[in-house]
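A further point concerns the way the authors explain their paired sequence and structure data. Nothing conveys this as quickly as seeing an actual entry. An entry of this sort, consisting of the sequence and the corresponding backbone structure tokens, reads as follows:
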Amino acid sequence: MIRVALARTLRTMRGDLDQVRAELDQALADADTWQERYTVEAERADAEGARADALLASLDQALTMTREQFDGMLAVLRQAAEERDNARAEAAAYRKRLDLTPTPQDQDTRAAAAESAGAVLDAAASRTPEETDQ
């Protein structure tokens, strides 16, 4: 009777062992599948990271060049403003030396001349090519 009980227990244990082996094989297959997916996704993420790094480097270079151009333009504008201020100061000093300080009458004369010039330009612009040839 002990032998029969041992034989049954052994058969039951073998069945359980086979079931555990099948579950282990399935778990290993699932682990391999997930490992492959992880590897593919990791490679894809690395490639996207490399592309992003390259794009950032390109944009950084473009930004640096733009900053340099802006700094150059700003320097030119500052120099032009300084030259303008110097020219205004020289003109004011020259007017003062020659006593040519503009009077309200001078300003009225300039305004009238500007209106007259504007009228002449308007008249010239309204002429047809045939009238211009005459």
About this structure: Residues 60 and 66 are 10 Å apart (CA to CA). Residues 2-102 form one domain. The radius of gyration is 46 Å.
